[in-house]
Design goal:
single chain, mainly alpha, 7 helices
């Protein structure tokens, strides 16, 4: 059986992945523009679509066969996706006027953002292959796939909660006055910088 101490350790360790700064963090804030905190739930749903199969694959030992070359391609396409999303966010910055829900909206579908910035994020995969794998193995050893399910639920609620908070911050543009379009534009630029770093890393790695 999995103990309460193990579940608490999953929550504590998960915080390093869930709350760490990165492309998904920035993009989630951007998707909240003109929407609400609920956009974060859609980003979380997209993230889950990628993350849950990944966790199950690790539990089944499949990912030990993935080569370094595959990881480099994931990094490359991830960088391209981020640049495209960042450019769309930058273009929409002028539309992020402070008019409540009637103003401009964050660029892109929150669900697609969640899927794209998870599936094409090698650091997210590496986190599960390194930090997350021991948790999965303990869960498998204790209760099999049922244990993996309990472990994953202990982790994934934090994704939804944190992404909802981030989207909520993005939706509160009315309180930022005329500076808000510049904030949205800055988010777009930052996402593009992440994308460029990914592409350089894939080409030089």
């Amino acid at each position: 059986m999995l103990t309460a101490g193990f579940i608490l350790s999953v929550i504590a360790i998960s915080a390093s992945g869930v709350m760490g700064p990165g492309p998904l963090t920035v993009a989630t804030i951007a998707t909240g523009v003109g929407r609400s905190w609920k956009a974060g739930l859609l980003v979380g749903a997209g993230h889950l679509v990628v993350e849950l199969p990944l966790v199950l694959l690790i539990a089944l030992g499949v990912l030990s066969f993935i080569s370094e070359g595959v990881n480099r391609w994931i990094t490359l396409f991830g960088g391209i996706f981020m640049i495209a999303f960042g450019a769309a966010t930058l273009r929409g910055a002028r539309g992020a006027v402070i008019e409540g829900r009637g103003g401009g909206r964050g660029s892109g579908s929150p669900l697609v953002v969640g899927i794209g910035l998870s599936a094409l994020n090698p650091y997210f995969i590496i986190w599960w292959l390194t930090v997350g794998t021991p948790l999965i193995m303990i869960a498998v050893g204790a209760m099999g796939l049922v244990g993996v399910g309990i472990m994953y639920i202990s982790h994934v609620w934090m994704d939804f909660a944190w992404l909802s908070v981030l989207a909520g911050l993005g939706s509160e543009g009315k309180r930022l006055g005329r500076l808000y379009p510049y904030l949205v534009g800055g988010l777009g630029v930052l996402i593009m910088v992440f994308g460029i770093q990914y592409i350089i890393g894939s080409l030089l790695g």
